[in-house]
Amino acid sequence: MPPAAVPTTAVLPYEKNQNPSSTSEHSSNNSALKSAVAETSKAFPSSKWVKLNVGGKIFLTTIWTLVSKEPESMLARMFSQDGAMLPSNQDEQGAYLIDRSPHYFEPIINYLRHGQLIVDPNVSLEGVLEEAKFFGLECLVSQLESQIMQANQPLDNVPLTRRDVIKALIQTSHLTELRFQGVNLAGADLRKLDFRNINFKYACMQRCNLSHANLTYCCLERTDLAFANLECSQLVSVKGLCANMEGANLRGCNFEDPSGLRTNLEGVNLKGACLESSNMAGVNLRVANLKDANMKNCNLRAAVLAGADLERCNLSGSDLQEANLRGANLKDAELTLMVTPLHMSQAIR
């Protein structure tokens, strides 16, 4: 049986121009560095206040602020108890020197203090992002990237808010025509606002809250108002040719103009809409889609409903005196409790 191998220890040769004395000196330097790190870590209790000189501006904070929020960041490692990284040099006042922009560092130190990202309008988000990357603040980096992406989103894809609309109304003279043509107002809260004579042609107003708003003499031609809330709104003499109001709430609205001008809703899509108790006297609803609409107790005197699709429409309790229903589809429509009986002269199909 062969004898067991005797373990040997590999000895690395000295590098060229290296001698044992220089190796010994290198080891002593490492020991000194480790001792310095250990002494530094002892000098940084979490409650201690420190000064940071960032690009010439002094910031006063605590060790706890620097290490608690993001313990893996550069600032946390510089001042941590384990001494993972030596802090920078100090100026004559004892502040630790950091060669970065104070303009972008201020939002970062505030974030470390209270956990909220607050950036003044005059401060570039991109500049703060670069500083956050430099200091290794990963959670802050993701927040900033998200905000920058939202800020750079094309304006034509972002719906206007109530504040945006009110600002436009305030800044525009009543003698000047205000146009929101083609504007995205989807989901906006526009209740109780005065929109008289405003042009909303082609605008996207899906699911808008326009309850109790004044839309007198507005242009709503081909406007998308699907599932919008227009309860108790003033819609006197509006021009709503081919507008989409599918599923919209128009309960208690007023369409009648005392001067005799007709509201024009020719070709409008009111499928499944609620128009209960609305005043629609004289309204032009020629060839409109009113399938499954709720028109209970409506005033439809002298209204034009020629060619309209009123299939399964609830017209119970409505007043259709002198209304034009020639060619209208009233299949399965609810016609009970009519205020004025329909006459054959109205030529219902």
Automatic annotation (TrEMBL):
Pfam families membership: BTB_2, Pentapeptide
Low complexity composition bias: residue spans: 1-31
Gene3D superfamilies: 6.10.140.750, E3 ubiquitin-protein ligase SopA, Potassium Channel Kv1.1, Chain A
UniProt-listed GO biological process terms: protein homooligomerization
Domain BTB stretches: 48-152
Region (Disordered): 1-34
SUPFAM superfamilies tied to this protein: Pentapeptide repeat-like, POZ domain
PANTHER family: BTB_POZ DOMAIN-CONTAINING PROTEIN KCTD9
Name the UniProt record assigns to this protein: BTB domain-containing protein
UniProt source species: Glossina pallidipes (Tsetse fly)
